[in-house]
Aspartate aminotransferase family protein (Methylobrevis albus), 483 residues
Amino acid sequence: MLDRAYRLPVEEPAELAPVVKPPLLSVDDAKAMDLPKMTELFRDHINPGQLHFMKLLGFNRVKVERAEGMYYIDQNGRKILDFFGGFGSLALGHNHPRILAARQKFQDEQRHEIAIAFLSQYASALAYNLAQISPGDLDMVFLGSTGSEAMEAAVKVAERAAGPKRPKIVYAENSFHGKTKGVLSLTDSPLYRGEFRLVGDTVKVPFGDIEAIRRAFESDPTIGVIVLETIQGGGGIIQAPEGFWKQLRALCDKHGVLWVADEVQCGVGRSGKFYAFEYENVVPDVTALAKSLGGGKTAMAAMIARREVYMKAYGSPKTAMIHAQATFGGIGEACVTAIETLNVLYDENLIENSAKQGAYLLQRLEAIRQKHPKLVKEVRGRGLFVGLEFQDFSQTLPMVLKPMVAMLDDKLKGSLSGFIGALLLRDYGVLVAFTEYNRNVIRLEPPLICEAEHVDAFCDALDDLLSRGITGIVKDFLMSQVN
Ligand SMILES: Cc1ncc(COP(=O)(O)O)c(C=O)c1O
């Protein structure tokens, strides 16, 4: 203890200007906000251009008051059947009771969140669980918050393990791996690339074309990594030909190329297996999960690497901190949510249910396609990861409607999916997802808790809507824009 006599005299601080609280909205204000106010604030502070699309589809007319299981409940108490599923983020549906309970307990016990100083029992348990689920020696786990972050981590671990003499990365046409600057170079979208400067060391191949990959590997020994979605989501639910992944594994082994499997959208049981690559009994060198790993309640993502690959990249004290977890990597409540999510997934047999209900959905959709061949071109998918492709109607549209359709947004002109999605929501209370790369495709990614009655409700609504015929659908959509 310092003797008082040695203390330096402390000057009284000059009077500080008081900090005035700005006119902030409270949580209760936010809850009570009406649609016109929500629209105004979205326009003024989030994304004015995006409102244009929300208005076209009628999404701006819904204020969600609650969400439970397979449904949103809007301001009028109307139930909206969720076949969009947050682009695959809602494997357990909305507000699964076990997820709510696990989170509530964590809060009641006042557990700690930030895991950068001390070890976290929750981060360790989640990493262990993911290693248990993942085949082979996919044992090393990096925790993050978003799919893009997990994919950045995946590409970085692979790049370091491949070494500086093999810097080139192969990726696929119509790929989507995220919008952050690194993985943007592997995302095949002129829109998202938006004229940003990208990493140059990449080689693009058609998705699922093993011969193109063989030629690339044989002609360029500086290729060290190949990055592919196991089932392309943004591309419109596209699968590689059967046997492709086995051939890819063999080719990668032969040429010493590391395979990164992006399972951000198709993983966590969506395809009817935990990982879609399990259909061919192969193991990639690195994989990535996000979306449903957060139990529909939080942001959680994981990169999982084979131990050998991870150790090569970051295995020594000297390299360990090159890409260690970020501030919110392995944050407490998110880990608890993900641990519970994985347990629920198995306890409730949701992976099998995805395979079962997915097969039923495809069967019903195929019958609808046969009934409406002029409107529906193809149905495809695996598990509850389904694409519904409509015919391009720009050639078949009745002459009288052409001038009216010509006035619409470019994104809607040749594509029925916008019209159908908007009318499914307005007239049947059913929500579906669109596909940026292929405007004719609607994506169906309902929660894996989906039952036959939900598949029937969706298919009955679609069938009824398609029975209006092209003229009825286009006219009803155009009317929805003026009402
Ligand atoms: C296959 C795939 N990879 C990566 C991402 C990026 O995930 P996020 O939007 O969470 O950053 C997505 C998102 O849709 C995705 O579908």
The longest strand covers residues 138-144. The radius of gyration is 25 Å. Residues 87, 146-148, 151, 176-178, 229, 233-234, 262, 264-265, 290 surround pyridoxal-5'-phosphate (CB under 6 Å).
